[in-house]
Amino acid sequence: xxxxxxSGFCPDFFYPxxxxxxxxxxxxxxxxxxxxxxxxxxDPGLEMIVVIPVYDEPEVTRTLDSLAACTPxxxxxxxxxxxxxxxISPEEVIVRNDSxxxxxxxxxxxxxxxxxxxxxxxxxxxxxKYAGVGLARKTGMDEAVRRFAKIDKAxxxxxxxxxxxxxxxxxxxxxxxxx
Length: 179
Known about the structure:
disordered N terminus; 7 helices; alpha/beta
């Protein structure tokens, strides 16, 4: 029995459809296109994913430092950086995004004992018509939903931050207490 059935809010005509699917399968089938960006297996203890769109943000590692200075939450935490550009982004932005990607890899190498895993994804350039922080955030959120769906974690916590956000040391504990 899945969570929808357990809630008692599952009309009979939906029962066969929902009983065979996980919590996010319908959304994934209808709203997410393409293969998953992250191929690493999902830790079954995953509790939170922080999604951060990154466009021309050379100091995103300050945000990672701020997150790493926090008291770790209960459970596993992942940080998903969506390094993005549009098909019409200036060459300078693309070069700075390349540098950002390199800086993130360097940060990971310098922080091997960090309590969270960082995934930096780089989708193909967004179409001009749709490009922007909204699509980058959706791309990251969709990837997070896929990861939670792989472990059937309907109550996973999704957090969205900007690339220049700094947080207090109790940030994750407070989020966890609230949700």
